[in-house]
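# step 3/5: fold
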Amino acid sequence: MKRSHIFPVFLIFSVLFACQIPTAIEVRGTPELHFSAKMDLGNMFAQQLEDGFSDFTLLRCVSTNNFTYLAYRDLYNEPLDINDLPDSDFDPSILGDTLIEDKDLIKPTDGNSKIIPFSGLKFILDGFVFSKAKAFIFVSGTDIIKKLNLGVTVDGKAEQNFEIEASIPSKCDTSSDEYFAPALPLGGHNIEMPLDGSDVILKFRVFAEAGKSFVIDDFNNADIRVELVVWLPLEFEAGSNGAEVTFPAAFFGDEGQDLFGRNPDDENAVMDVIERLSLVIKLNKNPFLGKDMIVSGGNDIEIREQIKTNSLNMVFDEETMTRINDPANLPFAPTFKIVYNSGDTLRFPRVFNAIEIIFSARIKFMIDLKDPPGEKGESGESGETGEPGEIGETGEGEDT
């Protein structure tokens, strides 16, 4: 053996026998996991709105920059038979005479009352008001409608009065769940209404003013249609006391489920070795840029980070991880909020996805190199058939 080979071998043996053999090894590291994701965050918020507008036909706008809905409702669509107009002031006795007072063709009954459920987003968009929502009523039909007026009452306040000058249908195609134009239909009557996130109660009537007159020909094959169209861009402004965006519970999994998938009845050895944990959610667009993000849960556990990039970053430091691992904080099912100051605006992009999720953990744990008590030498039990004195027992069968 060459001398150059002998020296390294000698050196290794001298170290082994000169030093005490370690009884444990401390392992440290920062593993990182990347997951490709396509979580539709816009849909998570939009679903709350869709649930509230269940009495409307909701069309998703595919040609707008920001997430927008067109909400449609057919309010009235009937033929006008002068001999059969229930719940109406119109009957054959009015024909040929000039009206001396207003007469309702369609009365503002409870059946003609509609609720625009803006509150559907209130519990996830607390303190915000809609900044671009609009409501329009379209009236169309035969020539008789040009002699009529539209009256609209919102939340019991003063009636808004519109003269019907022409037949203008909305032309909304409700056979699809998408709306392809970049703007709302033109020609409707713009209804003034509050946009503070509360439900709006709308009543309407169609009537003839005093001084108008009608003849039988006005009612030949006559009909009238009244349509409500609500333009709903998901664009908001924080109110005077500020506002918060609370992510739906599904953002972190099932509601009430531990963020780290722990079960109170199981041992959580994996969590015990994590000193620090970082979670990064990369977005295709970030409507929350510059705002403060707050993750809170358990007994006064709170993480606050300013959003500075196109990602949502959450860092659970050593102190926070210690508190999360406290059995009193199991399960740790945090709420996730974005905080806005008064006057700040929020616009959800039409395509709003999480595109990548990155977990990074700083770990530290010990590997015990000593034999567990009672195990030393036990492995020899498997060789009982080879103990002295038992060889002859197997040889007894050779005499036969």
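# step 4/5: annotate
The first strand starts at residue 24 and ends at 29.
# step 5/5: archive (pending)
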